[in-house]
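Minutes, structural biology subgroup

Action item carried over from last meeting: produce the structure token record for 3alpha(Or 20beta)-hydroxysteroid dehydrogenase (Bhargavaea ullalensis). EB confirmed the sequence was re-checked against the source entry. Recorded below for completeness.
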Amino acid sequence: MNRLKGKVAIVTGAAQGMGASHVRLFVDEGAKVVFTDLNEEGGRKLAEELGEESVRFVKQDVTNAGDWERVIQETQNTFGAPDILVNNAGISMSKSIFDMTEDDYRKIVNINQVSVFLGIKAAAPAMKEAGGGSIINISSMNGLVGGAAGYTDTKFAVRGLTKAAALQLSPLGIRVNSVHPGVIETPMVTQGDAVDTIKEFAKHIPMRRMAQPEEVSNMVLFLASDESSYSTGAEFVIDGGLTAM
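Output recorded by EB:
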């Protein structure tokens, strides 16, 4: 229960779903966590549940560099320098290329891709000063195989940025890895505009079910902990066998 004892983490997009699952597990394993989201109501509720001794919620637009500077400062002032960054914030979009507008496309690029760059850029100096750290970028199985335009390309970009950052930051003791979930039972799936399609698709997953958020969190925990001390620039896939087909 102390795999992250003494560590400080930042988790984005964590007011609900997979991000909230990561926060809960990190706290259970001894970490102090600053978590962020635009969903202020959900964020405050989770913070009250877990307690101010363990967590701090910060409302953040992950596409804004100034917000990132504020989050890093808040983390340092509250718990100390971050050892862990989980770039979890993201959106999905199921529009076809014919229906997707330029604004739609730029929105998903900014949230899914640019935010990851901004997070790495903001956190790396503090991690360097502290002597190292672990950055975990949540991509998708669609960062390995094709899917919807906008979503797929941004998740491939996260995978590529992970490798580039890993090569540059590894001499500083900072590891960078990407996690590639398949179909996870989160609000983004169960409340999105493609619910019926996704539920039907889940029947064809080799393991015949969607994953629970906690199953992804266990992988994120491994990468956040010192147990993964020799892993960097790598993809960690949690897809029930989909990309093996």
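Discussion: The longest helix spans residues 102-130.
Next step: EB to file the record with the rest of the batch.
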